[in-house]
Design brief:
Elements lengths: L5 E6 L2 E6 L10 H15 L6 E6 L4 E3 L4 H4 L4 H19 L4 E6 L2 E3 L1 H8 L2 E5 L3 E3 L13 H9 L1 H10 L3 E2 H7 L4 E3 L4 H13 L3 H14 L4 H15 L3 H11 L10
Parallel strand pairs: 2-3, 3-5, 4-6, 5-7, 6-8, 7-10
Antiparallel strand pairs: 1-2, 8-9
Helix pairs in contact: 1-3, 3-4, 4-5, 5-6, 9-10
Amino acid sequence: MTYENLELSIENHVAVLTINRPKALNSLNPQTLSELATCVAELESSAEVKVVIITGAGEKAFVAGGDIAVMQPLNALKAREIARTAQQLFNTIEAGKKIYIAAINGYALGGGCELAMACDLRIAASEARLGQPEVNLGIIPGWGGTQRLARLVGKGKAKELMFTGDMVSAEKAEQLGLVNQVVPRDQLLDSTRELAGRIAQKSQLAVRLIKEAVDNGLEMETNRAFTYEADLFGLCFSGEDQKEGMLAFLEKRQAIWKDC
């Protein structure tokens, strides 16, 4: 399928999804959100794709936020509607069967930061800047930002960043736990592809169950989360990958995983 505001390439089980509105700093308008939702659904149903890299076109921005020109005239009901649309899309990414990695090549602000936070991992170019500056527009983060930022960096720091609208450097974001790694800009996609390739070579059943255990378990009381973890651990023993992985370990060879 072709898209007006997205580019998609797939190689070695890794998809690279590029938001392609560089003149608008890759801001997310309703059409782009709709195209993203369609593309994510396509990738989720693909047997070929195991890991998805999301990045932005050009050198300035990953995603600079929602499209302000579109949002400025909205009434309360329309604003809530677009917020729910974006939240549902980002929730689909967060809960998806695939592993999503944000390759943050520039500004990741507002909705762009919220998109990055919905991904499983975040790799940032050294020049990248991240933040939730909605307060400067007289609004709050409404695409998941108030919840995901607090879960990633802690309640106090999240409130500080959202109260002030301050941007943070890639290095500071790494210190806060907002991004996993910082790399030189010219190495961003290569480094992200290398990480994606390593994940794609693992047992996909195990990778998917790790994602479920972490994401769902964090929403549970601790003892219940331990029980949930044990349930998923036991589930691993119902598939072929556990038998193959342990046999390969005992035979001192590389495991040959079943695609799933």
